[in-house]
Amino acid sequence: MKTIKAGVNTTRVHWLVEELQALGVQDITVTEHFKPLSQISEMSFVCDDYMVSEAKRIIHKIGTCGNVPDHYLFVDDFKGNSK
Questions:
Q1: CA–CA separation, 72 vs 63, rounded Å?
Q2: Could you tell me the pTM of the whole model?
C-alpha cells in the first residue's frame, strides 16, 4: 500500500476526485487553501501499489491547468496501524 499526497489546482478538484474514485480509490481527504494570489487543494489517499502509476497519471492530467507548475505529488509507503 502507498500513501499519495498531492497539491492540485483547486478548480480541478471535483473532476480529479471523480476520476480517482473510478480508479478504485475509496477515501480521499481534500483541504482547500485560499491566498490572495494562489488557490491550492491538498489531497491525500491510500491505494494499492498497482494503482500508483495510474493515480499519478490522473493527477498530472486533471490536477493542473497546464500553466506554470500548479501541482505537486509525493508517494510514500503506507504507515497505517496494523490492527
A1: 9
A2: 0.83
Residue 59: strand, helix, or coil: helix
Which letter does DSSP use for residue 36 in this model?
T
CA distance 56 to 63: 10
CA distance 25 to 66: 24
Between CA 52 and CA 57, with CA 22 as vertex, the angle to 5 degrees is 35
* Cell (9 digits) for 82: 496494523
SS3 content of the chain, % helix, strand, coil (to 5): 35, 40, 30
- The per-residue pLDDT for range 55-81, each reduced to its tens digit, is 999 998 998 876 656 678 999 999 876
Bridge-partner residues for 41, per DSSP?
Answer: 8, 32
The arrangement of strands across the sheet holding 38-47 comes to 28-35, 38-47, 2-9, 72-77
- C-alpha cell belonging to residue 42: 491538498
